[in-house]
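Retro notes (design track)

What went well: tokenization of the new backbones is finally stable.
What didn't: we kept losing track of which sequence belonged to which structure.
Fix going forward: every design gets posted as structure first, then sequence, in one message. First example under the new rule, 231 residues:
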């Protein structure tokens, strides 16, 4: 049996269905927009974190471009100490030595080691190495001891110290000239080594002169004492 619907009822039903469909579509769009926003925010958050993490990396911040090994650093510090001592003692020799050869040797130490010291300072600055600026206790003690001597006695003791000191220098510079890890430091050691070897030869020659000077001085003193007694 067929049913008969009134026109107002049909219109109401159609309006209800249309409203329900529109409401569902709006809800779906809002949900999707929320998801997209959340995803984008998360993506942006990751993008913001990456540069920050990279910038704070210790390797990026702290890795020096000219890092020097501990052995090379120790050699540079010791060479700086030795160079300062040579200059200070050389100045002392120009003032207190009696033999012309010893005075000349002292001036040679001032000139050559001042030049080498300046080169080492420049190299250390490039490598980020801080060099000592004062004599260590041992070098200062030797300086003070020699400063109390004069004449032939000073010449003998100063040249004796120079021979001993330069033997050590030549040995250490030979080792660094072949084993240094830093290429620039190795080149400096190789360039300075021949100068030190020449210093050693001069020191050995002048030590002999100083010893003879001391002997001659002793003989002269003995003769003077004898003459005074005989008179």
């Amino acid at each position: 049996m067929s049913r008969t619907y009134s026109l107002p009822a049909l219109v109401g039903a159609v309006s209800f269905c249309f409203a329900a469909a529109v409401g569902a579509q709006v809800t779906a769009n809002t949900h999707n927009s929320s998801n997209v926003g959340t995803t984008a925010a998360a993506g942006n958050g990751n993008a913001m974190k990456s540069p920050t993490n990279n910038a704070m990396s210790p390797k990026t911040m702290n890795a020096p471009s000219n890092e020097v090994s501990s052995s090379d650093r120790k050699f540079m510090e010791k060479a700086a100490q030795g160079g300062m001592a040579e200059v200070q003692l050389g100045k002392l020799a120009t003032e207190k030595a009696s033999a012309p050869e010893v005075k000349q040797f002292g001036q040679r130490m001032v000139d050559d080691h001042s030049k080498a010291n300046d080169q080492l300072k420049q190299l250390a600055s490039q490598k980020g190495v801080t060099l000592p600026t004062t004599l260590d206790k041992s070098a200062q003690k030797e300086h003070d001891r020699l400063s109390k001597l004069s004449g032939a006695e000073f010449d003998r003791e100063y040249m004796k110290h120079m021979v001993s000191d330069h033997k050590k220098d030549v040995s250490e510079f030979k080792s660094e000239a072949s084993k240094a890890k830093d290429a620039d430091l190795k080149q400096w050691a190789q360039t300075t080594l021949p100068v030190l070897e020449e210093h050693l030869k001069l020191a050995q020659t002048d030590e002999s002169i100083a010893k003879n000077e001391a002997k001659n001085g002793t003989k002269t003193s003995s003769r003077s004492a004898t003459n005074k007694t005989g008179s």
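Added context from the reviewer: The chain has seven helices and no strands.
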